[in-house]
Write a structure and sequence with these properties.
The protein is α+β, with helices and mostly antiparallel strands. It is built from 10 helices and 8 strands. The protein binds iron/sulfur cluster (2 copies).
Length: 308
């Protein structure tokens, strides 16, 4: 069975990496056992995010590619198809299998959000719907480690990947656990965030949502020069210095819709995951990533616009 699963990597649009965690690596109350109580193995299918999708926002010249090609196409097309294929292979052999990708618009929390999704498309407080912890589960599958930014880091791609899962009652040979060695606590991810949203290995959801959508004028070429005309704290917001609660974050996001959303409720990323981009540049400069490129990712000084 394990050989068949590994063959997925060679298929058209197959994953770049596959990791498998046995049920014993999870606490008894982990959501995976609510979603599929008979789970014996978790299979992680990991896909690179094309480095090219980060170039437009890096240069400040093209913004939609990142959200469409690095998020939407992977999450809505490629990953569901491949988890379905993997699950069908398992069920053909008589095992139960359930594909898992982020249920983007439903959450148990009453007052949180998913920065990648338009906040008003999310249904909150849905306690009966369990969600896996995606980063932690990918790490348990031996794919990589969690960096200071809260992002999963791998030896091949640094922070540039997305992942999905198949839960199954098949007992599969596990991938060895990943021994953390990539994140050196340089803090460049924290410094790069235009909204100071990263704390304690976590991206604060509402703070991240507002600045992911482009609330920092110095990193948003679409921002109106008259943004937030009636707010006393406008400069604080525009400089990324304001701590935003959910109410303030909603108000800010409502006022900065200068760029169209993508289909499937995805909000266009204006920060372009600057935290991950900074991490990628750092790891590339250190020469520690397995996947090498002919040219350096960053070509020039980072651009910054005036805040006024
Ligand atoms: S930028 Fe530095 S501190 Fe942040 S996750 Fe990457 S290696 Fe770790
Ligand atoms: S850089 Fe963007 S994605 Fe990263 S924490 Fe900040 S706002 Fe969120």
């Amino acid at each position: 069975m394990i050989n068949k699963i590994n063959e997925l990597k060679g298929m058209s649009f197959g994953p770049d990496k596959i990791g498998i965690a046995p049920a014993s690596r999870f606490d008894k109350d982990d959501p995976i056992f609510k979603i599929l109580p008979e789970t014996k193995s978790v299979i992680c299918l990991c896909y690179r995010i094309l480095r090219g999708t980060h170039r437009g926002i890096e240069e400040g010249t093209s913004y939609h590619h990142y959200t469409t090609m690095a998020i939407e196409v992977l999450e809505e097309t490629v990953m569901p198809m491949m988890t379905l294929r993997c699950a069908r292979m398992l069920e053909e052999e008589g095992f139960t299998a359930l594909p898992q990708r982020k249920t983007q618009t439903v959450m148990q929390e009453d007052d949180s959000t998913n920065p990648e999704i338009l906040y008003n498309k999310i249904y909150r407080g849905k306690k009966a719907e369990f969600q896996m912890n995606y980063e932690q589960t990918a790490a348990k599958c031996g794919i990589g480690e969690i960096g200071m930014s809260g992002t999963l880091l791998t030896d091949d791609f640094g922070p540039l990947q997305r992942y999905c899962f198949v839960l199954t009652d098949a007992e599969l040979e596990p991938t060895p656990e990943f021994v953390p060695h990539i994140c050196d606590n340089c803090g460049k991810c924290i410094k790069a965030c235009p909204g100071n949203a990263i704390q304690d290995k976590t991206k604060e959801p509402w703070q991240c949502a507002a600045y992911y959508a482009g609330a920092n004028m110095s990193k948003n070429p679409f921002m109106s020069q008259n943004a937030f005309p009636n707010r006393e704290d406008r400069l604080e917001i525009l400089k990324g210095e304001k701590k935003l609660d959910s109410k303030n974050a909603r108000e800010v996001i409502n006022e900065i819709s200068y760029y169209p959303p993508i289909m499937h409720s995805y909000i266009s990323s204006i920060c372009g995951n600057a935290c991950d981009r900074a991490c990628y540049i750092h790891l590339e400069e250190k020469g520690v990533l397995n996947k090498k490129f002919h040219n350096k990712f960053r070509k020039r000084e980072e651009w910054v616009l005036d805040v006024k």
